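Subject: for your reference before the review

Hello V.,

The reviewers asked for a structural picture of the protein, and I figured it would be easier to keep everything in one thread rather than splitting it across files. Below is the amino acid sequence we used in the manuscript, unchanged from the supplementary table.
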Amino acid sequence: MTRIALLSLALSLAVAGCSKDKDKPAEPATGPGPGAARTAPHAMNPHAMDPGAAPHGAAVTNAPGPTAAKDDQGRYVVGALKLKVPDTWTSQSVSSSMRKAQFELPAANGDDKAPELVVYQFGNRGAGSVEANIDRWVGQFQQADGSASKDKAKTATTEVAGMKVTTVDVSGHYVAAMQPGAAEKHDSPGYRMLAAIVEADDGAYYFKLVGPDASVAAEAKAFTAAIESIETTFAP
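And here is what came back from the structure prediction:
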């Protein structure tokens, strides 16, 4: 075979190989390359839901759960905590896996909506610092005069059963998201929030009471008493 014939054959084989590679499906991109899928490490906001979304990608379900159980002394068992609440507070089935307990409180005369107390807990992984959660909660209220709610919120720190407790009291126009991550927001003027963050050995517990101002005011002493009644199942 002549040299020209050999060169012609080699060229034909190269063209055929290129055509075959062109028809082959592309391999999926892996690793940190430009085609690799990426997920923002904090795409889920722990408290865009009240407290609140599962922090760091923890699974959250919206299936109703059980009501908080009582011990033989009539105290509600909420995770590693126990507390007493008035008989007028109705324990409800929790509406998502983020919630450890929830209660409906009596509505004051003239209020068409009853206040709700929700208790959240995310384990030792937590859901941000105490200060960040307080700021987020206070930021869910707007003031009619345009002033900052943070300047009008009342915060305090105390200790219950050897655990640090931070409380916050704020009023105004309640504009928190209706559902975790939802664009739709509450539009509730004349609302008040009483909240407490209890720093237990198994992680912080978030108590958030929200409702019409008059109804929350009527239950303010009972809320404080409930927080002060908290005991822990952890050994001292």
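For the response letter, the relevant points are probably these. Residues 18-62 have pLDDT under 50 and may be disordered. The two ends are 95 Å apart (CA to CA).

Happy to draft the paragraph if you're swamped.

O.
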